Amino acid sequence: MASNVMIRLASDRVNLSLLSGDNNPRLFTPGEVITAQQGYMRGHGTYMEDEDIKSSVAGVMVQVNKLITVKPLKGRYVGEIGDVIVARVIDVQQKRWKVDTNSRLDSILLLSSVNLPGGELRRRGVEDEQQMRKYLQEGDLISAEVQNVHSDGVLSLHTRSLKYGKLSQGILVKVFPSLIKRRKTHFHNLPCGASIILGNNGFIWISPMLSTDGEEGGGFTQNLDESVSKQDREVISRLRNCILALANCKMLLYDTSILYAYEESLKYEVHELLHQEAMFDIAFLTQHKLRLQE
After folding, report:
1. In angstroms, rounded to a whole number, what is the distance separating the alpha carbons of residues 177 and 270?
2. Nearest Cα to 235, choosing from 211, 260, 206?
3. Which residues contact 86 (CB under 8 A, 6 or more apart)?
4. pLDDT per residue over 201-228, tens digit each?
5. CA 47, CA 204: separation in Å to the nearest integer?
């Protein structure tokens, strides 16, 4: 029996008009020769064939001195120590929480790696282990930092800083991890009136403007009883749609690009931002602003 099979090329998922500038990296496809010159070392996403370094994934080349790697456009999150991530608790175990970080394996958050309520510093005892579900339970969203990467790829997290902890009211947006630009800080209070956490694992959290009143709770306080104003909800929804528009055009996501996209989106209604014409227009104008800034 004959059947039709549709195969999409990696280049079809990228708006080439947005990648026409000289400052943008070139897109490599699997099997394509990256370099035939001698003296280069192959890294992740590459392989050797007939003394040529070829790409094994669809992505962009990253060169550090003589090391060549290809960063895939789409794939699971590969954690590094110090990464800021947004994750969801999926299981409560003995002295630890199992956490979904969008990586190949589930991550671990130890009881000894979290702040106790009130920021108290002491050894964790049996009472603390019995009250683990009062701190974090299944389904809770948290912000954390990668503390260690084990040999099998499992990530060990910590929330010892008061800026990390349980997340309250807001919206979770999921994008490819490769679209998150690595910066010194991934926590931003945007001038439009919302806070945003850009997780290196591709999970982005958008919430009303964060305040420092909850720091005394050690990262476990929530404001679920407070109502979010209509204006804040509109700002959060607009930011969400702007992020999805940039992600659809495979543009890097960081505070400046998101803020420029938000400014360009004001001429549209919130529900119009996910139309194909509006997404392309916002991404194109955002890219133009970023080039002028450079």
Report:
1. 25
2. 206
3. 141, 142, 143, 167, 172, 197, 199, 201, 203, 204, 205
4. 999 999 998 654 444 444 566 666 678 8
5. 33
